Amino acid sequence: MVNKLKAIEEKYIELENAMQQPEVYSDPAVYAKYAKEQKEIAPVVEAFRQYQKYISDMEGAKELLSDPDFREMAQEEFEEAKENIARMEEEIKILLLPKDPNDSKNVIIEIRGGAGGEEAALFAYNLYRMYSMYADSKRWKCEIANINETELGGIKEVSFVIEGEGAYSRLKFESGVHRVQRVPDTETSGRIHTSTVTVAVLPEMEEVDFQINPADLQIDTFRSSGAGGQHVNKTESAIRITHLPTGTVVECQDERSQHKNRERAMKILVSRLLDAEREKQNAAVAAERKSQVGTGDRSERIRTYNYPQGRVTDHRIGLTLYKIEQVLNGDIDEIVDALVTADQAEKLQASAEL
């Protein structure tokens, strides 16, 4: 491990020196490429340097152990350094785990009401609000691409993009079926209803990531419309793109410009097609691999929101929180952190078994 860390540190220093050269500094594209590479390995280098400092601290304390005047103090320093070394070794193991290449990307979230009719649509709105409030708390930008609202304020389906550093890495475990248990406003007998909402989370891809034959696309324009007169546009700026070989349809009608709607719709289409390809590959190896945080399969029930008990339970990791109001107001870091930790633990175990 130490040899690997030394090689990473050498690479970091090489990049640092290269970025100070006039020919690199004066070329924005090359400079940005080097800066991105350096930023990606910086956490590993910082951890390795801290690890080396603790090794040095332990060696220094070890030398003083034979001196009666300093033995007690040296013993304390030795034990502290030993604990720090063990902690840093675990941190470094996690930092060295293979990175998901999509972790730094923006994210496309698609929410659809499932079983439960209007009650499912109302909860779909609650989830959209939860993710948009979470994005606000991270200072990420949240933009609706397409929304299909109901007359009572629910959402049949919504597609929106969250732009921000690491958005996909934080939200990728939200894919799946979210179940809600509550008494609907229209229920006079006080009976608890169970409804479901499906969430799909995709990394936002560019057209260069997936080659699409233009002949495979049918592109239609139409006027934006929405319940209660929202998002209405008098010009045909809304875009519908159909990928004929797969039958995948993407609509984008939130932007006022047809060009912007087309650009966003293409990104969503590419992201969906790549996701479908990945799902196909995952299905082929699913028998060999069990994931602690779930497969990301949209048919898999991942979380229950129980209003009468004020409870949110994530079934993949057995986490239960009694703070449903805070969670639905976008305070989901505790859940996200637990899912990320469980994923890291599973990867560490898998690497140990190799």
Summarize the structure.
The protein has an eight-stranded mixed beta sheet with strand order 2-3-1-5-4-9-10-11. Strands 6-7-8 form a three-stranded antiparallel beta sheet, with helices on one face.
Protein described:
The protein has helices at residues 2-19, 22-25, 28-64, 71-95, 117-137, 167-171, 258-285, 324-328, 333-353; strands at 107-113, 141-149, 155-163, 176-182, 193-203, 217-222, 238-243, 248-252, 301-306, 311-314, 319-321. It is of the alpha+beta class and 354 residues long. Residues 227-233 and 287-296 have low confidence and may be disordered. The protein contains 9 helices and 11 strands. Helix 1 crosses helix 3 (28-64) and helix 3 packs antiparallel against helix 4.
Count of helix runs: 9
Mean pLDDT: 84
**What oligomeric state is this?**
single chain
List unreliable stretches of 5+ residues: 227-233, 287-296
Care to count the β-strands? 11
Q: Which sheet architecture does the biggest sheet show?
A: 8 strands, mixed
% residues in beta strands: 15-25%
Backbone structural class: alpha+beta
Q: Could you estimate the helical fraction of the residues in percent?
A: 40-55%
Main sheet strand line-up: 2-3-1-5-4-9-10-11
Radius of gyration: 25 Å
Distance between the termini: 15 Å
Q: What is the chain-wise order of helices and strands? A: HHHHEHEEHEEEEEHEEEHH
- What would the principal axes of the Cα set say about the shape? globular
